[in-house]
Amino acid sequence: MADVLPDVLAWGLRLVFCGTAAGPESARIGAYYAGPRNAFWPVLAEARFTPALLRPAEYAQLRQYRIGLTDLSKTGRGMDRDLSPGDFDIDRFWASVRHWAPRAIAFTSQEAGALALGRRKRDIAFGAQPVAPGQPAVFVLPSPSAANGHWPKLRHHWRDCARATGFA
Fold it and tell me: What is the average pLDDT value for the chain, to the nearest integer?
């Protein structure tokens, strides 16, 4: 089965954002974080990961800022509640991290962080996560999805990540 969205990965990335899977609108139009009320693109500019607001269709331009994109499920699509455990390929994700060797990874939801780190969602706090020496820094960020009703009071974690990774 083909990937719903292509990875945006390259050598020398400072940060890779990783979600669970392409949302319904992202899958429909073929662009990351394309939901009409998703705050991903605005918060990238607000937190200074990017110097200007990009549109979802411009996702491949993130490479020029040394930022990558991927999902834990490359073939699944929909909201997290629509996905099954078999939709996720965690081994593939970590193999990509080892291959491309980004300096940091930021999971764009607690769900993505929990799945990738093999922990329960309730046991993961937002922010920097403990990592072994020599591993990329890992951050778990609140979901920018319109479905996240707590977004306004949690968006500061994105600014914290930008500062910690040298973007702001």
Answer: 94
